[in-house]
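[agent] plan:
  1. take the single chain provided in the ticket
  2. run structure prediction with default settings
  3. attach structure tokens to the ticket
  4. add a short note for the reviewer (M.T.)
[agent] executing step 1
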Amino acid sequence: MSDLMAGIIVGVVALPLAIAFGIASGVSPEKGIITAIIGGFIVSFLGGSSVQIGGPTGAFIVIVYGIVQNFGIEGLAIATVVAGVMLLIMGLLKLGTVIKFIPYPIIVGFTSGIAVTIFTTQIKDWFGLTIENTPADFLSKWIVYFQHIHTFNFWPFLIGVLSLIIIIYSPRVTKKIPGSLIAIIAMTIIVYILRHYLGITQIETIGDRFTIDPTLPQPEPISFNIQTINLLLPSAFTIAMLGAIESLLSATVADGVIGKKHNSNTELIAQGAANIIVPIFGGIPVTGAIARTMTNINNGGRTPVAGIIHAVVLLLILLFLGPLTKHIPMACLAGVLIIVSYNMSEWRTFRSLLKNPPSDIAVLLVTFFLTVIFDLTIAIEVGLLIAMFLFMKRVAETTQVSVTTDEINLSDGSDNSEEEILILPKGVEVYEIDGPFFFGIANKFDGVMQTLGDKPKVRIIRMRKVSFIDSTGLHNLGSLYRLSQKENIRLILSGVNERVREVFIKTGFKDTIGVENICSHISEAVAKATDYVNEQKNQ
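[agent] step 2 finished; step 3 output follows
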């Protein structure tokens, strides 16, 4: 019963948002509702979270609007299907857990950037400006707004302000009915009276701009060609990444509230399936919606049944109340989206992140400004690239290479808890790598090698703290082994863990260096080195 009530409430909550997101994305309002119906059903039916509510979200407005302007509805369908395939592959390759580790400054950067962009797109309808063609990019939009400020219309502005007041203050009266729905119903009635009884016709409604089709959507074939796919691939990647991040973030937040754990990979597969199927019926990209998911939880939803009922409720509204949506004023939808953009902005979090280390601030600001001024696709790609470089830099900084030529204190580390000193014979040097041995520290290792003076008889590479080794690190070891052979220096590896040992076996490096030169403990390595040095003296 609780799932039934939650599903009905979420369906009602989703209606104004689906309409607003559809229009702001550059498609007709029923396309937003269709997306919420089909996408919401698939996400609930197949998803890895029991309470996730899927549908169109504000995060996609910017990217979807750009695709529609440049490639039309068919281009959007192709990009969405390709994004769905990407999400499906991510889920099948079990990348769900990896995506959740995307740096927080990137998420806040592009989320705040999207919020600013959504707010910018609503200025025209809120101020009732008369503009034939609104530019797609941020700076051009504001230039055109200022150029047409003389066309300001008081009535749409008043409707927008009243909508904002209702949405902001209605929770003080009731939290069961969403403020956006109250605002839409109230403003629609007021505007209907103003237009039909008082002769005030300057207030534009959905019906003035769109023709509503309140029927069941029919599947339409999508014609793919490699040329269009190549052009839309960056946009599809953005949709896939944005969908994955938002869905998994929503599911993670929901986990904390209901005390359950979602399956990230199953969730990605469900999101992929939804984004493959929805475009066939004319819908826009689907993802998990945090606000609707939390509404579902707060109203007692605990199983996927609530999400399925939410989809059925929206379908009934479309079929029986669809024609009434044409009376909704555009300025009221602008008010709804302005509140959405404010909630998305996370300005308090943004401000707090500005107190973080300079590298985090750089990622945050670069992602934010690229999202606002240029393009969300560029922002995500550049943001991820910067984050990866910074991550590698930090790992490389934490990985140290040290040299010992006299004695080793075994109590200082994990080899032995007892106080024990290992004396190194003359001609034996120990190099300890403290951290993963990957391409980021290969040059550091080479640098340490080049600073040494006299050539030793034995080099021991202590690898007890090397958690993994990549191909560059392996190549580095191979070069060191060949150089040591040429100079008649024996190379011994110490403390090699199972994971690294498996890499040695698979690549054949174990046979190259010789199994006798791979020791499990530093004491064993030093003993072998001592025997070798003594043998060399006796020869």
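[agent] step 4 note for reviewer: Strands lie at 54-55, 287-288, 400-404, 407-409, 421-423, 428-434, 458-462, 490-494, 518-519.
[agent] ticket updated
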